[in-house]
Each structure stands twice: as C-alpha cells, then as structure tokens.
Write a structure and sequence with these properties.
By secondary structure, the protein is an all-alpha fold. It has 19 helices and no strands. Its main location: membrane.
C-alpha cells in the first residue's frame, strides 16, 4: 500500500470503517446522477408521439437535464461547503422525486423541460457533488479504490434501470412510469442519510512524515512556505484585511483555484476532451445499424460496453492505488484519455459485427478507466479540502462541451452521411488532450519537485538559524552569569 499523501485537513481520515458505508451511498448517488438521464430515453418515442413534437425537441429533455446537472455544480458546492453533504443529498433526492411526479402530469413538452430538465437536473447536481466530496473526507490512502468503487454506480444503475424502465413502460405507460420512478429515486435520500460527517477528532499525523510528491500536497506545501516568507514583509493590518476578504469568498467557493497550476491543466484538457467523450457511446448502436446490423445485435453492443465498463472501474481504482501508480497518477489518467482517442480513431477500421464487438470491449475499457480516474486526479491535484469548490467550478465550465458535443458529432454525420468522420473527430478530441496532459503534467511534476526541494532547503535554513540563535542566547546568558 502506498503511503498516504499529506493533507492539511487537520485530521487523519479513517480510510475504512463507516467510510465503506459512505462509498455505498456515493455508489447510489453517483449511479442515479449519471444513469438517470440516459435511462429516460426509453420513453422518448411515446412522449414524442403524445405531444406531436420532433425528435430534436424530445431529445432536449435529457440534454437540458444533463446541462442543469453540470450547471448546478457551483450551487451544490456552495451548499456542501456551508451545510455538509448529507442535507444537500437529501434535498437533491426530494427534488428529483418531485420533478418526476410533476412531470407525470405534464401537458406540454415545455412542462417536461422545466420539471425533468431543470428541477430534476439540479436535483441530480445536489446528488453528484456531495457524493464525490465526502469520499475525500473519509479516505486518503485508499482513496483511488474508494473513488473507483463509487464511480461503478453509473454502469450498474444504468444496466438496472434500462430493463426496469422498459418493463414499467409496457405495464403503466410513460405517466405511470414517471410516478413510480419518482418513488425509486427517493433511494438517493437513503444514500444521503448514510453520509454521516466524518469524525474529525482523530489525532493529526506528525509533521515529520515524509512527503509524497502529489499535486495538491507538494504545490500547497511550497506555496505555504513562499507565503510565509512574503508574509514577513507585510504589515499585520494588511494581513488581517486580506485574510478577512479571502475568508468571505472561500466560505462559499474557492475562486483562487483559477490561479492553481494543476487545476488549470485539468480544466483546459477536460474542456476539449468532453467534446468527444459522450458522443461515441450515444452513436454506437446507430453506427452498427448503419452497417446493416439488426437492432437487437446493435443494442447488445451497448450491453457489452456497459459490462466491461462496470468491471474496469474498480479494477482501475485498485491499480491507481498501487505504490507504482499513486505518486504519478496523472500519467495514468493521461494514458487513459489517449487510449480513448486511439480507440475512436481505429473504430472505422472495424469490419462486420465481430469488429464492432472488439471495439465495444476496448472502448468499455478506455471509458471505464477515464470515468474511474476523472475525479480522483482532480482531488490529487487540489486536495480534499478544496475539492468541493473545484468540482463545482469544473462542472459549470464543462456544461458547454457536454451539451454541445453530441449535437456537433451528429451534425458531422448529417453533413458527410457517414459515421466514420464523427469517430475520427471524437478520436482527435480525446487524443489531443491526452497528449496535452502527458506534456503538462511532466512539466507540473518537475516544477513541484523543484518547489519541494526549495521548501525543504528553506525549512532546513530556518532550523539552522533557530539553532544558532538559541546557541547565541545561551552563550550570552552564560557570559552574563560569569560576569
């Protein structure tokens, strides 16, 4: 087991105990947050005919829901920072439930946009961010494994909801199904009840612990030493003014992250990556049908993809938690992103159904690896104590690519009349950020190592000066005694 990365949480996370119940709760919350918008597509054809709307109009229901979930990230982060994860998840579960119940009485498509899209999307945001944040308060050494297990909730819940929604639709229609789904999502409230705040009375680790060169610990440690030196040049009045103003802002959300080197690398790469992240999943079955494969075989490709995705996420968490990968986990994430891009670039070369099955397996591996590491690497960069603000800022920025990525990819299919150009574009959108991550994290790790060496040198020099001062005081005291 790799050594725990030092944090300035002020306590030692338990890395187990009730934390595993919290992981199970996060498994449920994250599962519903990501799977619920996708599972609702089963009802779209019936709703489209009922309201006499176009396919694009009905498709906006899930798009608005996903966009609202990402746009609600900063609001959710502010509430988590203020009230903690448990009450926010409870409110989020009630919001999604109320949204589905109200949508079951809908009379226009706008009604569904408002209820399912906006209210339901914000409710899912109140489930996602708290679940991601609380894992960092319970786990430190085993955090990659915990994150990998929690992120497995997405494929598991999706594979459960998809057949369940088909059964409910056959028995009760879309209105009755929405009512029942409104009760099912109340399980998010049960998950929220399990998210007990961590006991912070645990003794902190001794300061003599050897540091680990991860992004958050090294950069913040170096920044702390630099700030300590510059603070000596400031007056006490300016210090108190600055601390008061920063305290008021950080009480809600930490905007200083936009000056954090690792956070900016992560954000820049992810904005490009998300243009090509979801589209290959959305168009996998249509692409198979375009090649003359029957509907059931095309749908089975998604089942293969989901099955591989389900098992690779916890496996990625285990690999990321090893002593060889954990200290440089950003390189592992860079590889996973690049691997996605290569899969999409090679997809048009797959001929026949067996070729698409092979692609679905390798794509499931790539997609699951990125999904398992997506938030773990962010927490590694900024630290658990700033993660809530970081994930809120990231999701609001990623809202645009998530909303526009699939329509842009669909437009390429309409223009060229072939899916291969869409897969080429998605491959480029994934491969370029992957290479960017490799290069920038090499630079970032190099800078962090230099800053850490400087911090150690400053600490040693300060210790030597303190010893010399102590010795001079002792000599002076002894001189006065002799005199």
């Amino acid at each position: 087991m790799p050594p725990a990365a030092p944090t300035n949480l002020g306590y030692t996370p338990p890395d187990g105990g009730w934390g595993w119940a919290v992981v199970f709760a996060a498994f449920i919350s994250i599962g519903f947050s990501y799977a619920f918008p996708k599972s609702l597509t089963i009802y779209f054809k019936e709703i489209q005919e009922y309201f006499s709307v176009s396919y694009s109009e009905i498709a906006w229901v899930s798009s608005v829901m996903l966009a609202s979930m990402y746009a609600g990230g900063p609001v959710s982060s502010i509430l988590v920072n203020r009230y903690g994860s448990r009450p926010v998840v409870l409110v989020g579960g009630l919001m999604v439930s109320a949204a589905m119940v109200l949508a079951s009485f809908g009379t226009t498509i706008m009604h569904l946009y408002l209820c399912v899209g906006v209210i339901g999307g914000f409710g899912l945001a109140f489930n996602l961010q708290p679940a991601l944040t609380i894992i960092g308060t319970y786990f430190q050494v085993k955090r990659p494994l915990a994150n990998g297990l929690a992120m497995t909730g997405s494929p598991v819940v999706l594979s459960t909801l998809a057949p369940l929604n088909q059964f409910l639709f056959d028995c009760f229609g879309w209105r009755g199904s929405f009512l029942i789904l409104g009760s099912i999502v109340l399980n998010c409230c049960v998950a929220g009840a399990l998210m007990r705040p961590v006991n912070k009375s645990v003794q902190p680790k001794p300061k003599t612990e050897p540091p680990l060169c991860n992004g958050a610990a090294a950069e913040e440690g170096a920044t702390a030493d630099t700030s300590a030196q510059s603070a000596n040049l400031l007056t006490e009045e300016n210090q108190s003014e600055k601390s008061r103003s920063q305290g008021h802002v950080r009480k809600f959300i930490d905007l200083s992250l936009f000056r954090h080197r690792g956070f900016l690398i992560y954000l820049t790469g992810n904005v490009v990556m998300f243009f090509g992240f979801f589209a290959p999943v959305v168009f996998l079955a249509p692409y198979a049908k375009h090649q003359g494969i029957d509907e059931y075989s095309a749908a089975f490709l998604l089942s293969i993809f989901a099955l591989v995705d389900m098992f690779i996420r916890p496996a990625t968490g285990l690999i990321g938690n090893t002593k060889w990968i954990r200290p440089r986990i950003q390189y592992f994430f860079s590889f996973a992103v690049s691997y996605n891009g290569i899969c999409h670039l090679l997809c048009p070369l797959a001929s026949g159904y067996m070729g698409l099955v092979v692609y679905a397996v390798f794509f499931g591996l790539a997609f699951g690896m990125v999904s398992a590491l997506l938030f773990e690497v962010l927490m590694d960069l900024v630290g658990a104590h700033r993660f809530s603000s970081a994930v809120g800022l990231v999701t609001i920025v990623e809202c645009g690519p998530v909303l526009l990525g699939p329509p842009i990819s669909g437009a390429l299919v309409d223009i060229f009349g072939d899916y291969k150009y869409m897969y080429y574009a998605c491959g480029v959108f994934m491969l370029v950020p992957g290479i960017f991550f490799f290069i920038m994290h090499y630079y970032n790790y190099k800078r962090l190592d230099e800053e850490q060496r400087q911090a150690v040198a400053v600490e040693m020099r300060t210790s030597e000066e303190a010893v010399e001062l102590k010795m001079s005081q002792d000599d002076k005291t002894a001189h006065e005694t002799d005199g």
